[in-house]
Amino acid sequence: MNERVRLHYEKYHYPHYSLLASVRPCDTYALNRESLWARFNGKLPPSGKNRILLAGCGSFSPYPTSLANPKDEITALDLSRRNLSRAKIHALLHGCFNITWEAGDLLDNSKALGEYGFIDSFGVIHHLEDPLAGLRALEKRLAKGGIMRLMVYSNRGRREAESVRKAFRLLGIKDVPSVRRLIKRADKDSRFYRYVRDSHEATFDGGLADAFLHPCARTFRIDELMTMIGKTNLSPLLFAHTGALPDVSAEVERLCRLEKNREAVPNFIIYVGRETGGGCALAPDTRLMLNPVLRDYVGAFRVGSAAVAPRLGFPNPVLDAGARRFLRKFRRPVMISALAAGELDRARPFLRAMFLFPFRQ
Predict the structure, then answer these.
(1) Fewer beta carbons under 10 A from the terminal one: N or C of the chain?
(2) Which long-range contacts (CB under 8 A, 24 or more apart) does 278-283 make?
(3) Separation CA 246–CA 237 (nearest Å)
(4) Which of the residues in the chain have pLDDT under 70?
């Protein structure tokens, strides 16, 4: 099956962005390894944990990950050499040189050797014949205290695309030109047409192929996802899809209710960890520090406001003049005991958004 998946991505690279498409560093805040480690371990990462693995990197993600972690060692692993080639060109065009490129299967133990402090596998394991085997293969590469981000298709979030994909398989439709001909002929009031009309994926061939022609795509109910994670030694830390609650158990209950009521459910985005130490309490001796990717956005000579793209499932605080002035003091660690009255409360929205992170020595 993985060979069929490889051939699929050799034919259709994914995702498709112009090679000139750029990302603001501030929008990569949720990929910063140092902030993630501190948030879920309560301390700064030790030396030697500065390796990042992009497991199934596709044709784009190495670039924003490098922006978020310019001093780290990043390994970009993908089945498809075409994906890797395009991702490499994109990264080099934007001055990202801290990436090692590796073609191969994440199930191959000879690939992506060693341990990693952060692993990002976004939209990957649901394309494996055995997603649990894939998750376990990634777990083996995750360092103690390390963080992993996963995105998998939800049963409810993917249901329209899966219905179309299964119908196309029965009809023997195997290429994008045939799909586009069907779209042109489709009734404008049909579910199929409305789905395509509203989907960003339909704007490029690789998106249509990924949505409707993929040789292996699995979906999960939330209980199935949590059961799979429970079969590893990984711990669920935080959901990050749109509308997610900050407490894992509460979010699982919410998603179960939505599924039971047959309501809309997003695809699942979750951070998991291996033997993480837990976040630290906001005690007097706790230090607060600015997420490194925001350092250039809080300078005294910045003008206007910056709306940072939401990556954790909720809208972010706006970086206006007042917010920048407040955050500027955290470019170096500040002990909570040194904060003025009311400043800890002011910091809380920025802590939740991971613009600031707490840690103890």
Answers:
(1) C
(2) 278/40, 278/41, 278/42, 279/39, 279/40, 279/41, 279/42, 279/358, 280/42, 280/43, 280/358, 280/359, 280/360, 282/336, 282/344, 282/351, 282/358, 283/336, 283/360
(3) 9
(4) 1
Output DSSP code: residue 328.
H
Give pTM, 2 decimals. 0.96
Task: Say which residue the tokens 């805040």 belong to.
Answer: 29
pLDDT, tens digit (0-9, with 9 covering 90-100), for 107-123: 999 999 999 999 999 99
Angle at alpha carbon of residue 28, lines to 42 and 277, rounded to 5°: 15
DSSP 106: T
DSSP symbols for 237-261: EEE-STT--SSHHHHHHHHHHHHHT
Whole-angstrom CA distances from 56 to 63, 124, 238, 258 are 14, 6, 21, 30
| pLDDT score recorded for residue 202 | 86
Quick: pLDDT tens for 294-310. Answer: 999 999 889 899 999 99
The amino acid at residue 252 is V
* 3-class SS of residue 287: strand
Instruction: Give me the residues paired with residue 288 across strands.
Output: 334, 358
Q: What H or E segment, with its residue span, contains residue 352?
A: helix 343-352
Q: Are 162 and 217 in contact (CB under 8 A)?
A: yes
Which superfamily does CATH assign the domain made up of 2-155+217-274 to? Vaccinia Virus protein VP39 (3.40.50.150)
Based on DSSP, count helices (H) and strands (E) in the chain, helices before strands: 13, 10
Q: What is the DSSP letter of 202?
A: G
Query: How far is the C-alpha of 302 from the C-alpha of 296, rounded, in Å?
Result: 9
pLDDT in tens, 308-357: 999 999 999 999 999 999 999 999 999 999 999 999 999 999 999 999 99
In this structure, which amino acid lies at residue 144?
Answer: K
- State the DSSP H helix or E strand holding residue 166, giving kind and residue range, or none if neither: helix 159-171
3-class DSSP state of 310: coil
